[in-house]
Amino acid sequence: MFLTQVLNGLQLGSIYALVALGYTMVYGIILLLNFAHGDIIMFGSYVAWIALVQLGLNPAIAVLLAIFGCVVLGVLIDKVAYAPLREAPRLSILITAIGVSYLLENGVQLLLGADAKVVPSIIDLGTVQVFGSTLSGTALLTVAVTIVATVVLTLLVQKTRLGKAMRAVSEDMGAARLMGVNVNSTISFTFAVGSALAGIAAILYSMAYQQVSPTMGVMLGTKAFVAAVLGGIGSIPGAVIGGLIVGFSEVFVAAFGLSVWQDAVVFLLLILVLVVKPTGLLGRPVTEKV
Amino acid sequence: MTKMYPRDNNHNPVIVTGFGGKDGQRRELTMPARYAINAILVALFVFGGNFLVGEGLISRYQTVVFEQIGVYVLMTVSLNIVTGYLGQLPLGHAGFMSIGGYACAIFIIRMMPLFGLDAQSMASGSTPAVILFVVGLLFGGICAALMGVVIGIPALRLRGDYLAIITLGFAEIIRVVLVNIDSALGFKLTGGASGLTGIPAYTGYLNTAIVVSLAIFAIHTLMKSRHGRAILAIRDNEIAAEASGVNTTYYKTLAFVFSAFLAGIAGGLYAGCIGVMAPAKFGFMKSVEILVMVVLGGMGSMFGSVVSATVLTVLPEALRAFADYRMVAYAIVLILVMIFRPEGLFGSYDFSLSRIIERIMNKDFPWNKDDSDEQTDVPVNAKADAQANEQADTQVDVQAEASTDSKEA
Amino acid sequence: MATKHTTKLIRQESPNLIPERDLGAIPVLQAEHLGIDFGGLTAVNDFNIALGPTEISGIIGPNGAGKTTVFNLLTCVYKPTRGTVMIDGYDLAGKSVVEANHMGIARTFQNIRLFNNMTVMENIQVGQGSHMTSHFFEDVLRLPAHWKQEKESADNAHELLRIFGMENLANTLAGNLPYGAQRKLEILRALATQPKILLLDEPAAGMNPAETDELMENVLKIRDDFKIAVLLIEHDMKFVMGICEGLAVLDHGNIIAKGTPEEVQNNPRVIEAYLGKQEVR
């Protein structure tokens, strides 16, 4: 029983971690809290739903379509809404992000209705018996996928040319440009990677909860952002740790029969961490030059 | 404040406070004259409107729409204090509204028997009803302000996006608490998810008009004082403000708490106008709706806030057939305004009747440009101006670009 | 301005920089063994200075020598790793930037930091703010105390503008001012906080010779009319030599020379720091 709860926490935490990675990457590079990130997940889930239910496609193709759809949408959002505001005050671009999020939610609602849609199981992995506990195969897959995604992302950022460019742009956009880094394509690439992670999260989320709705991204996104901030925004291990903390605390609050309070607990946790350590658990302190 | 500069006694102040105006000097209205003009306007609006309501020339439905306009105008101008004047972005304004609304409604419902009132007589305008209304509204405002202190102190230590997310989190906590507090307490207080019902219709035209006018007056006087200047200074350059002796923590908290207080008052009006309080109405979406109103009107423009809150409240009522498209339209408008006119429709322009009257007194019309005082005062130095603009661009402030517009306006 | 001053420290005998007329007085600004490390890097080390109440002194040195860091230490932007700063004999340890200003230290910035969307007048009035006592409710309800204070504040601000010949710009937005006027306004805003010491960070940067001459006059005017001390960072040697009574030369965070402008000018270490060591062939 306990083991099941732990796995549930890991599963939920992994999804949060994947989404939080997307937030962290975008924030790291253009200092933008991408409010639309949660809605990219919603979009990905709807793509999967359309592919599976409306078009009756092969689940593997549906998964690829969902991830591809998220990548295209993420890059498109950056090009259309954020790129014109690169030099604008931070407040303007933040409000734009809220607008994009609002647009996606209400656009989908207008086209497909406000009610939740049922997503059939993409693959049935059955259950595994370990020490007398029943563990769901989906949960194990979720954890495994998250581990792989985090490792790949870390290697990408640390070892590749593009990763180096990303770090350079996040350090100092102007200097990176002078050093011959193509800033715009680097930012697009960052959005693409973050959105691909969102696409993976969308699939895993649909597998876990088997339903999609236009506003599903709001809470998911907000909590994942909480996770990213908790762990220290801009830090990959921070996002994973933050995601797991949020996931575990939700599962355990629910296990105590207090599930109606779980949102409040998550936000309270965030506030406490920020009061004690304003840059999050693994965040670097930022000082403004005088 | 003691005078400290060495002074000579025969200098003439530039500002002429008097009606006359000698040669070459600009005629200006005296302060009492300005206040009198505005007081007359407000009195006309408040009591004239009330007369029309009494005569039945404004229908019951129109009155309710007016009350809603009042609520949203109050929400918008109060958020504008923090977003427009202080330059911070909180996303939990609806949370303060709900606190104020619940507190005010519960207070009034519980206190009615003590005042010998019932739901009917609460709306009557009798003296005990007015007293209970005022006390209840203040109670709601103060509850919201206290919550503002609790939220503001940790939140305002953080910058930009962190402030946004932490206020969003607080608003969510407030919502969760409002839904679940009854089961935790063991008796009925907020009515849980289904909401608080049986709120008497105490809002009315007269109350709304007076409260909103007073609030706008208070914001105006606050901003045109040393407190307001300190708040604007923080927006423009926080580091310089500190170095100039502005206690930034204090003034940020002051602006935040004052904004929360007014949002609480708006919540109290809202409760009496709608008659039902449900936690679901005060989610993130409500906060965004208010933010859209502020941004659209122009951050830092009270006039803009009032106009956009009015338009965005009336339009959906007028265009009920297109209700489905309303949210999508909101979102698109928000994005387009940010990309093409980030300072909002009115920038930081503020309407002033006194200024218009002064222009007429000085025959200072747009078509005889030569008399325009501000233009001629600025030394024309293109190169230096370009340098100055460059400086302005590097500053991270809310509306570097708005400055030119407000000057021309 | 309700800044609680801490216990007054006993003044140690100060170095020889103070001009004769200030010798009897307590130095208005005194730094002893001041230093700060960033990570492992020592940005400023063993910085000592004593400023007479009406002294004009300068800190010079090559780029990256730590001059602005010294200003940031003196104004409590950074907490020093070592050493003390005293204003009028009161210790600045643990004070915030705001408290330091209230204790009598005001500054300008290397990259101009004005309140660009506020008028010239309002910029100055922000500086005066901490000397105004009108209460929140007095201001919001427009009680007599508000009017009285606003009038005094406006009068004083106009007076200040008049003294420095900026009266005609009172209602111009600070962001729209020409560059030289922006620099001047920053100084006026600092003066409006009624400081005992004014720190100027590269006040003549980007100015043409005529503007620099006017600035020199103005700095002297500030010293003579306002009876305060001025400490400045500047690269313009003509300006520094023409106006400063004492100079400290900073290189790699250390004071390498100190004295009158003439003494400093002929100091071989200073020449070395600026021009590099002459290679012996």
TrEMBL record, chain A:
Main subcellular localisation: membrane
UniProtKB keywords: Amino-acid transport, Cell inner membrane, Cell membrane, Membrane, Transmembrane, Transmembrane helix, Transport
GO biological process: D-alanine transmembrane transport; L-alanine transport; L-isoleucine import across plasma membrane
Topology class, membrane: Multi-pass membrane protein
Superkingdom of origin organism: Bacteria
InterPro entries for the chain: ABC_transp_permease (IPR001851), BCAA_transport_permease (IPR052157)
Record's GO cellular component terms: plasma membrane
Record keyword Ligase present: no
KW Acetylation (keyword) present: no
One family name in Pfam for this protein: BPD_transp_2
Membrane-spanning residues: 12-33, 63-81, 93-114, 134-157, 178-205, 225-246, 253-276
UniProt-recorded Gene Ontology molecular function terms: L-isoleucine transmembrane transporter activity; L-leucine transmembrane transporter activity; L-phenylalanine transmembrane transporter activity; L-valine transmembrane transporter activity
Record's subcellular location: Cell membrane
Family recorded in the similarity comment: Belongs to the binding-protein-dependent transport system permease family. LivHM subfamily.
Name this protein carries in UniProt: Branched-chain amino acid ABC transporter permease
UniProt source species: Lancefieldella parvula
